[in-house]
Specification:
There is one protein chain. By secondary structure, the chain is an all-beta fold. The chain has one domain. Helices cover about 0% and strands about 45% of the residues. Strands 1, 3, 4, 6, 7, 9, 11, 13 and 15 form a nine-stranded parallel sheet that branches. About 30% of the residues are buried.
Amino acid sequence: MFRKTRKRLTAGGATSLIAADTTVRGDITFSGTLHVCGRVIGNVRGDGEALFTLSAEGVIEGSVLAPQAVVNGTVRGDIHATQCLQLAAAARVEGDLHYRSLEMAAGAQVNGRMLHDDEAPKCLAAPDAAAT
């Protein structure tokens, strides 16, 4: 009656890995794919068609902004997925979710608001230097 149709997310470019015994302090900007098994203390931002994945043992202490995100670990901060957000069964999020498309497995936990975005966020124009 119901068929499981899990959409496989992909991104072009290189894949970067933060291993399980690694802690990164500071903000990370990436393109392609970033897979985190360790800990990041800072914000994570994916450019272009980037894919962010967080394994079950992974921890992010900061916000995540990426077009595509698959979360199976702990995020202490907001998640902004401009295209698709997948929360696996071991996902633990302490913050708000901003998404265009959401898939959430049984067992995933969110302590925050879930906000659907109809369209991708618009970039603000830079302030005019003559106006100051």
